[in-house]
Amino acid sequence: MKIVFTFIICLSFVYAKAQRCGTPEYIKQNISIFTSPATPATAETEGRDTLPNEVIVVPVVIHVLYHNNNENISDQQVLSQLKVLNNDYRRLNADTVNTPAPFKSIAADARIVFCLAKVDPNGKYTTGIIHKYTNTDLFLSDDEMKFSSSGGDDAWDSKKYLNIWVCNLFGRTLGYGVMPGGPADRDGVVIQYDVFGTTGNVTAPFNKGRTATHEIGHWLGLRHLWGDAECGDDGIADTPPQQTNNSGCPSFPHLSNCSINSYGDMFMNFMDFTDDGCMNMFTQDQKIEMRSLFAKGNVRNSFLNSTVCDSSNAQGAPLPTDTLTNNISLSVYPNPFSTQITITSNTLVDIIGKTVKLYDVTGKLFVVQKINSQKTSIIMVTHLPAGIYFLKLEGANETPKIFKLIKQENSF
Ligand SMILES: [Zn+2]
User: 335 with 402, same domain?
Assistant: First the structure.
């Protein structure tokens, strides 16, 4: 009995340690660099206005920063998060049935969707997902993950891309976001790697991708329902006042000292602190607040003109960079190629001794070559006919890595 009791105490301690959202502390610590959302420092004065019922498209780039393989979450896990966002911000989430009847009429489809970027800041094709090794094993909520110079990865142009950094945060802070109007190189949200998405390395009760839904709510100008003060105000008319944050999953109705009616807290709102499985709605006025940021003259207006999710704007074929397994970061370029292909290991992991094979689409083998240089190996391929090829990198006792490449017509 004593052992069980101790175990329960330890378990509660572990849960108590998870900090649902670090945004208020982050803003407090960095107040000097943030201006009021009403007077954004980066307001747009040009560009078109939003259309009344327009579905607003927000291109995103995901910076996955990992110190060990566990933190190097899969592209599939990233995609599962995108799916959650596109459900929650369109009220297509399956758990809308759990919205209590009195709140159903004010639950909103925000008509905002998110797409992985297809064009990088240099105009090249991208998957929108960056995997990058870092020497930092735990990040504080101090923005170091947002700069390559401090072990992170630099933001892409925050007028065109929503930057999402996924990393290991100290003290089990699940995430933090910036409010609109901050510096461009810090703009975006940061999410703990094991609460991002719904598959792969996710940990209950934060395994339904709602941390990102919540933090992006901050990026779109929303505050916590209780205004981060006892019975405080979030500036949104149709979210009822509540005394403080909720956690776990209360049963409806949950009343507090400042409830204005018998319906009590809107603990199922994405901007409360409840478990992922407990949240399921934004309100109509939260929708109006978020969409107002995209209006002409406001801080997110430039996103209406962002075309970086359209792959037809990318130069060249898909670049097979960022294929990372076991801390090996490989670049294979150029793509398309004509006279040579270069293979580079971006880390200090040894690639010497591995074998490169080049096949065409029928499986015909054209080139076999051993890599004999720590960093780079060049394959002479000038004689090959134009078309699609597969480059296979093989090492002993490991899964081969395959890259799709395009051979251009030679222009001599
Ligand atoms: Zn928050």
Answer: yes
Ligand 1 being an ion, which residues bring their Cβ within 5 A of it? 21, 23
pLDDT per residue as tens digits for the range 170-186: 988 999 999 998 999 99
Tell me whether residue 316 is in a domain: no
Output the pLDDT for position 35: 58
Q: What is the pLDDT of residues 94-146, one digit of tens each?
A: 999 999 999 999 999 999 999 999 999 999 889 999 999 999 999 999 999 99
Q: How far is CA 261 from CA 171, 242, 264, 320, in A?
A: 37, 11, 6, 57
CA of 221 to the centre of ligand 1 (A): 11
215 in active site? yes
CA–centroid distance, 270 to ligand 1, in Å, is 9
Q: Are residues 231 and 349 in the same domain?
A: no
Distance 102 CA to ligand 1 centre (A): 24
Do 294 and 211 share a structural domain?
A: yes
Tokens of 327: 């801390």
CA of 272 to the centre of ligand 1 (A): 8
Q: Per the omega criterion (within 30 degrees of 0), is the bond before 334 cis?
A: yes
In terms of average pLDDT, the best of 28-32, 306-310, 345-349 is: 306-310
End position of a domain, from candidates 263, 286, 311 = 311
pTM over 0.85: no
* Active-site residue (options: 215, 289, 398, 409): 215
pLDDT digits (tens, 9 = 90+) for 243-280: 999 999 999 999 999 999 999 999 999 999 999 999 99
- Please tell me the total count of domains within the chain: 2
Tell how far the Cα of 269 is from the centroid of ligand 1, in angstroms: 12
Distance CA 115, CA 90 (A): 13
Q: How far apart are CA 62 and CA 81, in angstroms?
A: 11
User: Could you tell me the residue range of the domain that residue 124 belongs to?
Assistant: 19-311
Neighbour-count burial of 364, counting CB atoms closer than 10 A to its CB (0-12 exposed, 13-18 middle, 19+ buried): exposed
Q: How far is the CA of 250 from the centre of ligand 1 (A)?
A: 18
**How far apart are the two ends of the chain, measured CA to CA in Å?**
82
140: tokens are: 């504080």
pLDDT per position as a tens digit, 204-254: 999 999 999 999 999 999 999 999 999 999 999 999 999 999 999 999 999
Distance in Å, CA 282 to ligand 1 centroid: 14
Q: Are strands 340-345 and 328-333 parallel, antiparallel or unpaired?
A: antiparallel
